[in-house]
Amino acid sequence: MRTALLFLTTTLIGVGTLGCGAEPSSAVTVQKQAIAAPSGVTAVAGIREMTVSWSYTPDGTGSPLTSFEVVATPGSARVVTGPTARSTLVTGLANGTNYKFTVTPILADGTRQTSSASAYVRTSDVPTSPSWGTYKSGDQQVELNWYAPANGGQPIQGYTVTASPGGQTYVTPGTSFVVTGLTNGQPYTFTVLATNAVGNSQPSGSTGTLRPAALPSAPQNVTATAGIRYATVRWTAPTSNGGGAISGYVITTQPGGLTQYASSTVTSATIGGLANGVTYTFNVAAQNSTGTGTAATSSAVTTPSLPSAPINLTGVFHQGNLELDWRPPASDGGAPVTYYRLTSTPAGAERTVPANLLVASISGLTLETPYTFTVSALSGVGEGPPASFGPVLTRPQPRAPTDVRVTSTVQGAVVVWNPATAPAGDAVTEYQVTASPGGSSVTVPAGTHIATVPGLVSGNTYRFHVKALNSAGPGRPSAPVLHRHVAPLACEVPSFAPASGHLFNEVSSFVGAGDFTGDGLADAVVGNVYRLVVLASGPRRSMTKLAPSVSAGTSFKELRPAVADFNGDGKLDVAAILKEDSTTAGGFVVFPGTGAGTFQTPIPTRLAVNVGMDCLLTGDFTSDGTLDVLAHTTDKRILLYRGAGNGSFSAPTTVASSAPYCPAVADFNGDGFLDYARVDNANNRVVQANGTGTGSFKVPVYAPCSYCYGDMAVGDFDHDGTRNDLAIVSSDQVRIYNSPSGTLGLMTQYSIPAPTGGVYSYPVAVDLDADGLDDLFWTNVSGGRLNLLRGSTSTPPFAPLMTYGFSGEGAAPAVGDFDGDGRRDVVLADSYPDVRILWGGPLTPESLRLEGKPAGIASADFNGDGAADLAVGVHEKNAIALSLSGIGARGAGLLTPVFVPPTGSTLTGGVQDIVAGDLDEDGQEDLAAITTVSGTTVAPQLVIFKRAAGGDFSPAERYSEGADTQELIKVDLNEDGRFDLVTLRSLSYSQIQLSVWLNVGGGRFAPRVDFKVAATGPFSRLLAADLDRDGHMDLAVMRQGTPSITVGLVHVLWGRGDGTLTGPTTFTAEVNFWAMGRADLEGQGRVGITLEQRALGFLTFDTARQPTLTPLTPLGARGAIRVLTDDFNGDGQVDLFSFSNHEAAIVLQQPAGAYAAGPRTVWGRAVQDALSADWNGDGLPDLALADDDAQSATLVMNVCLP
Questions:
Q1: Which of 1092, 1081, 1091, 1088 lies closest to 1105 in space, CA to CA?
Q2: In CATH, what number does 2-122 get?
Q3: Residues 642-654: tens digit of each pLDDT
């Protein structure tokens, strides 16, 4: 190119020289040589400078190159460098500015050619601000991450993190940093800036608020409830959120590891997609900003599976229908059964049955054809396996046997039943008796209605059924009877605990205890108005009434006597308190004992007219070896009578002149002399006066006693071996004082429930439970309870209060060993007719408190432990109270409400009577009750409480009863193997009504059918028995009669076996009947009626329904309420128990049908109902007595004496 240009120039110059017609110049102009510009100009940025480089090759033919000029734009920066340079440093630039550069070579002749400008290049700058990536709080720390910013042309040297609050900075080379040492729960924000050689960037924006936090603790109360292919998991929030808000929950399913998340606002989650019939657990963990905390695990739950097969599928062909019934599956798989599917082979019976029905009546089957049936249960999961029954021939089979009774013997369980009804022309051929579970079956021929089932385990409960068979096969089983098999031991002499009665049959003012006959046994001395009578203890808890003493001349007060040897002859004497009035002086009288259970002429000690005494205490207060008497008078004095040693006393000395309560005597300060203590309620204190041994007392010392009153007893309550402690019993508290330093001080106090009738009174210290520790025993006067605080070393000084409902007076109890077993007993006197002894030894269960009057009593195994439980209706509470067997102690329960008024009604109702039995044939015993109503606009109810599979009771089922009824019984009237219910009520003075509720299966009842009977007078007793021995259950009702107005009467309505009745047949006698019961006195199935008419008789009917009354024994309780039968002494013969509200008697059957009096079991004087059951599982029948006044039911144990 350059050559071409030179040629061109030369040419052009040449042309010009030649002229071409132009005038030649006068001077010659020399042209400068054109040069090339530098190329490849680049710049490398620096801090306020750049290094500029270029390429340039000089032309060696022209003017020499002298320099390069580098110019920056914008600005005025210029650098001139030598000709050999190909780069130079341009300084004085501004940081962070875009520059371009040109390079100009300069020749010696001044020629220059500027290059094209370089690309813009920016000088180095501070970095841009970092931007946040992620940040996360942790336990006392936060983890920060950010993105590296543009470095401004210089490598970033590091980052600075600043915390707020506090302004603490942290330098780090990388793009992440963990800030530690923070306070959990404190809010923080952070900024970060970058640094390079130029300087610091601007700080980043702030993080969001971060709260350092520990991991949350585990959620609480994690539970899971399984559903069909799902489970619902529930929990409560953790106790600690670690310092940060809970952000959610993580639920993990095991097995499978399925994870599901829930928000922080919920505490439950539904986990779907589960498999049925699989056991799962669920882990629940809480999350906060730090992370996921410790998980809590639910208990294992199993999702529902298919229900198992229905059980006990049975059927019987009767009156053209095949009647099937079954029980629900043993397992519903966890989902409720919704219905049942029934099929048959051959076909014809296919149908579905609602889940609440467990029966099916199938008609239209071909006669004389064998059918097989299946029943399967269906739930939301699906259809379970079927149960099968058959083949059953469609030919009529026998009905169910009725009135099955079971008793235990050494050989096994003896089962007795009524003959079953069979179709005409196809008689019963045999009976099959079964005890389940695990029991063997016994088959007996048709004419036999008694069988012994051997091989049973003593102590186990069995379910007994009897089936009748004919040519068509087995008929329906009898209604189930649950019986606990315990082989009894023969008991020659039974007794009863906690107390037994001893007939005194006269008014008793008080009772004392001591060995008045010198035989080593404590006897009871009874104050009979104005004379003494000794009940002498004999073998096996017998007592003999001895001759009475001569009269004291004045009647006794009903206060505790003092028993001691006042005349020093070695024989026990009795000091009794005399009544006073406006003409008679009070005081006391000493009856010197003879040592033979009788007394010499009494020695009186009297006060002034109209002044009496209310307690006597004995002791040697004068240290002279003779007994003195400390007495409290009705005018609030305490007097000391010094004994003369012959049964008489010197004139009294006044010890205290203003003492409202009786004192207690003991050596409280341990100096060997008798002291006394008394309550000073006016000054809220206990007064302790220490004796001097001379008949005088020192200046009293005091112990605080706020709101202090009550009776006192002395005993060893602090278990230090010395009987010098004091118990004060008031209406709401028991206070215990002891004197470890010689002065009484409050040791402890107990709150006690308010007494039922009367007040708490007459405390005594006695080791009643034979454990070597003093117990505190006291009574209510009158009526109410016997109360016991048992001495205890585990909860000193006493175990929790025990109470026994007791409606007798129980005034002034006395203590002694009346049966010679080495244990202390307590004797109680009532005004009439018995003396009662509470026997020491292992304690019986305390009474079941009812808080209302009893209304029906029943026994069954309600809690499924194989032992007998007690149920008592309580009218006022509209409830059924339960006394439940248990290990170590009995428990209590309550079923309420029984009566429920219709919606919108405010009427109230209560329980009238109850009955127990397996009403729904599930092997568990249920309860039925009838109610009364406060008005006439709403009907009372029949109420059914069925036992549920878990052992509790299902919600009540109610039926309208129509009108108030008196009694309720269970009986299989239509012979279908199910218990029906029958109620009795009086429609008018001339008409009664029996209402029958037929059980249609599953414990459900058809509408009642009423049978009206013309009958004059009130009828108060109802029972069922096969009285004419035709196999059908009959009903009997009794009218007591009114002396000199109407006689006793029994109506019998004869059962037909189909739930209907005919009759009645009437039996009457020229006497009044007091009570009625049913008995199989021979134990062979011949059931009759026991009638109590101040004697016991046995009413039977022959097959023509003609009555016969056989006298049994004149030994009956007067005015009995009911007669029970059982084998009370385990000799295999049926005995009788007749009780009234005042007394009771066991009548023991002897060989050859004779009867003899057994032990008296009187308990209170307002007993209105009773039953027999084996409460303690020893094979002997015990009793339960329900008491109106005490509002309680008491278990009375049958004890076999050695």
A1: 1088
A2: 2.60.40.10
A3: 999 999 999 999 9
